[in-house]
């Protein structure tokens, strides 16, 4: 099973447009769309059997990513941002847990909800008189 993002350019392209990263609220959103819905985090993970690296783009502008799968070098990505200065962070890993820790340090660590505590409000089964 291949879980990599499909190509947007080249002879094996599944889509004709690049992946688009920006916040949007779209009525009747298509599930096979390349446009993000509500929120996007421009973080691209690339992994092999031995290591993992990531690229994080801290630019809040609308961004498109073209992806091409090339036999000799694996994958090529082309990042296009609408405005601003490209502000990228390379997360060298080398293991997946290292990449996630490096990303958490960039974004700040937030306290978790205490375990075993659920705030659930149930409106099912209520009646109005």
Protein described:
- With about 130 residues, the chain is mainly beta.
- Helices cover about 10% and strands about 25% of the residues.
- The chain has 1 helix and 6 strands; from the N terminus they run E-E-E-E-E-E-H.
- The protein has one helix at about 95-105; strands at about 20, 45, 50-55, 65-70, 75-80, 90.
- A 3-stranded antiparallel sheet has the order 1-4-5, with no helix packed on it. It has a 3-stranded antiparallel sheet with strand order 2-3-6.
- It is globular.
- Mean pLDDT is about 75; it is low at about 115-129.
List keywords for this structure.
129 residues; mainly beta; 3-stranded antiparallel beta sheet; 9% helix; disordered C terminus
- Output mean pLDDT: 77
Rg over CA atoms:
19 Å
Distance between the termini: 55 Å
Low-pLDDT ranges: 117-129
How would you briefly describe this protein structure?
The protein is mostly beta strands and 129 residues long.
Topology:
Blueprint (H helix, E strand, L loop, with lengths): L18 E3 L21 E5 L4 E6 L5 E8 L3 E8 L6 E4 L4 H12 L22
Antiparallel strand pairs: 1-4, 2-3, 3-6, 4-5
């Amino acid at each position: 099973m291949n879980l990599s993002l499909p190509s947007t350019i080249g002879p094996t392209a599944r889509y004709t447009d690049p992946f688009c990263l920006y916040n949007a609220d779209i009525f009747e959103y298509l599930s096979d769309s390349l446009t993000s819905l509500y929120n996007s985090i421009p973080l691209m993970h690339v992994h092999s059997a031995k290591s993992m690296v990531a690229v994080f783009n801290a630019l809040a502008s609308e961004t498109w990513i073209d992806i091409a799968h090339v036999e000799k070098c694996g994958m090529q990505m082309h990042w296009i941002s609408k405005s601003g200065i490209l502000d990228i962070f390379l997360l060298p890993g080398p293991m997946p847990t290292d990449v996630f820790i490096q990303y958490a340090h960039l974004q700040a660590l937030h306290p978790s909800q205490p375990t075993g505590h659920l705030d659930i409000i149930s409106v099912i089964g209520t009646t109005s008189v």
